[in-house]
Batch of 2 targets.
Target 1
Amino acid sequence: MLRPSIDSPAAYAPRSVGAWAWMPDSLSRIASDRSDGAFRRLFEEFGPQIRHYMMRYGADAATAEELAQETLLAVWRKAAQYSAAKGTPATWMFSIARNLRIDRLRRETCWQELSDDVAEGTPSEDTPPDDAASERQRQARVQAVLAALPEDQRAVVTAAFVDGLSHHDISARLSLPLGTVKSRLRLAYQKVRAALEDLK
Amino acid sequence: MSTPIRRHPDSATLMSFAAGALAEPLAAVCSVHLSMCAECREELRDMELVGAALLGSTPATGKVAAPVTPPEPVVVERASNDRGDVVDALPAPIATRYGLTLDQIPWKRLAPGVWQHRLALSPGAQGELYFIKLAPGCRLPLHGHTGVELTVVLTGAFVDAFGEYRRGDMQDIDNSIEHQPVGDAEQGCICLVAAEGPYLLKG
């Protein structure tokens, strides 16, 4: 079984203004522009990050590169279909990378839908689609919450999202009781939720 | 036809589902609940923003080679809405993966009024995933758990010390809990259950 590598979670302090702040614009540009330049820029900006994400889960460099390419090709090829109503482009890219990781690295059935599929099935039940500006705002708020998260909560959230560790594995890795792992995840989510409350 | 769903997964469970960090059977039960619960789908979207932000802030360097020629865009053809809208139908996520409908489940009798059908998981996946059927008024033996147990109700209802669970409701309990679900007096129930570890039977 693949074992995630062990690095310091502190290395993942989210940048409030990072490459991904650029992203919503870039993806909508790709959708309309579709130039070779836009294509190369997509790989330059996000390729290394997705490769790193795959390697955190134990992929060797070649496999991680392959999965990063596959993620970005999917983003590129489906960009024309993308609409901001389906979530932020960053969320969309994350869901593609996450699902590939479950499918290829864990070799398990992936029960998570891509974020664009989730909104597709039940338009009438879900909340009305936000516009692109509001989606960007939501992403910025979440980034701010993560940047301000106390170190103990950030370590747990990072272990789940970046390293893909179960509650049990986080508890073992960080030497925390299982209940503490869960309560820190809950606390972090409560902050995210509170930060987005007025944008609903 | 749709009664409101009142019982939801622990947000720590949903966070790990969003992260792609839940064991396969636990993720399966979450996805069935999500297919029936708009409220949790909305929470999941917020949680995926967390994943997006963290993925974007990895300290990555180097280059990933791009193919020389950008591929043509595709228009993905979507199957028409196959989300289960019909009451008592097996929700789409599980029906699609296993090619089953509720009345096709090959039940195995465990005890009077109690049936089970185990679902195959990927090789190497941890835990168990199964349907359980309780006849009206029948109860599971009192049991504890060696890990998390997630249950989502597909038809009917069950009652235990925590109250009543109906279609779409999800129970999310861990190894500190012992319980003894009883099938609804009129309809009994069919549930999808994921367990991280084996049962610990009491008595």
Target 2
Amino acid sequence: MSRPLPSVQEHNPEPSNPLGLDGIEFVEYATSQPLALANVLQMMGFAPIARHRSREVTLFRQGPMNIIVNAHPEALTGMTAPGARPALSAIALRVRDADAAFHRALDLGAWAMPTRASAMELNIPGIHGVGGSLIYFVDRYKDFSIYDVDFVALPDAVRAPPALAGMHWFGVVQSVYAERSGDWTDFYRELLGFTPLPGGQYFGILPKGTLLASPDRNFYLQLIEQPSGSDDIDWDERLLRVGIGAPDVEAATRLLKERGVVFVDRDPVQPSAKGALTQVYFGSVTFELVKSDVVAAPPE
Amino acid sequence: MNIERFGMDTITLAGPLEAKLRAVRDGGFTQIMLSARDVVGHPDGEQAAIDLVRKSGLRVTGFQVLRDFEGLSGDLHAYKIDIAKSMLAMCSALGARVLLCCSTTSAHATDDRDRFVADLQKLAMLAVPLRIDIAFEALSWGRFVSDVASAWDLVDRANRHNLGLAIDSYHMLAAGTPVDALDDIDPRKVLFVQLADFMWQSTPTPDERRETARHFRVFPGEGVHGAQIAALMRKLDELGYDGDYSFEVFNDDYVQLPLATVTARARQSVQWLLRQVPHRSLPFRRHRAA
């Protein structure tokens, strides 16, 4: 006699952080013009510290924040080659068990990313996110890092360059089509354990959309819908920009201005103690500063 | 309400996809419900069919049909997930925003409602990155789900933003579902409505329902359940349903008639339907899936 199938109700309730999610390991930009983007990243305080052994991929770091710039020209199955306009192409999440997180996501209806689509040769599992972007799961971030395998340190590079003005990851902003915030809230809640904050609770200088808190309360996703009555504007669903937290936004803004970063200085995004928004570089790259006291631990 | 809210279903017409698209447009309709067979059966291949649809100027009401999806396990479940992914990819390529999924008739499905809910949740999740809504429909000969109330129970429990109901007047009539059953449904979760009547009073067995559904449907206004269809239209209107209607009229005679003859009958049906609902001056609101 065959064993009856387990029902949903027989499953034990899941913990509120089912993946053991523990912050952002890195964000990835894809671009065919890596040097131009590197200049902007360096103005923002990120230092290039390592280069991939075999691909045109560079690791930038600042305090607890890692950025990978992927200029690998080869178009991989199911993916397009990086274009001239840099795109925020992946978020890597720290989790307790990457393989378990990946398979749990597939069981719940995620799409597996194309084989070897990752910027890394190390096998990092990942799923499709918004637009053409990917969400990686990384579990090697404590005892040794994923970069130890794939990357070679640049000569004279400081391994752990300190953060300017205590800057740290605050979150990622995503554009969504009209009336699609609910769909993406389901996506992040069910697959990753994010929780929508009550309406009206915002940070920074762009108080709109839907804010989702990560289960470890380390960072946020902000969903911004296409404004109604704006059918004529070019709008698609993608990762728009990263949010960077700083305990003293005005000090951070001042420091970055001195390094050449230009901030939007007109309403409604006038730089203030709550936040600031940089100009858009290359038609697609912008950074948002947000008042945040949380300073994540630097990488070991 | 106006003709903009009504579309034709390719199943209702004979001939190749080009001819169907042209006939529907020439018939004064602005939208079309597509079947996977229209796409994969095109002699010049799938991409040619997708290009034709994209260039037709017609809005795609939805794409059908994912069958026998819920309640499977093991290899069968994995197989159906693969099928669902292929259907979703086609749906997306066509610019369709809704995929129709019909309640299972499979002898291999388990009668586990929790499993049904989990499977619909999984399907809805697969559809999120592709900007597709899943419309779940109760087939009147479905093995476990054969009426609107049962389909709604699953959709409600699954509680996913991009999962809703497809309502088919034929199945409601065949299953003997009163229109008041819609009172228990959130009208915002009705993703589209398919319309058809038939020529005899009742279809007491599942086999009769299936046979009638596949060969003997007629347009609303042509069959014997006009009063019930009129009541259904008024109920949906009262509930505030502002989405699309599509004529899904499987009929062996219609697929051997000139396409213009069939679309003319569809136009007559639209006029008949418009006479059944009170005229209101409310502006037409576009459904989010448009």
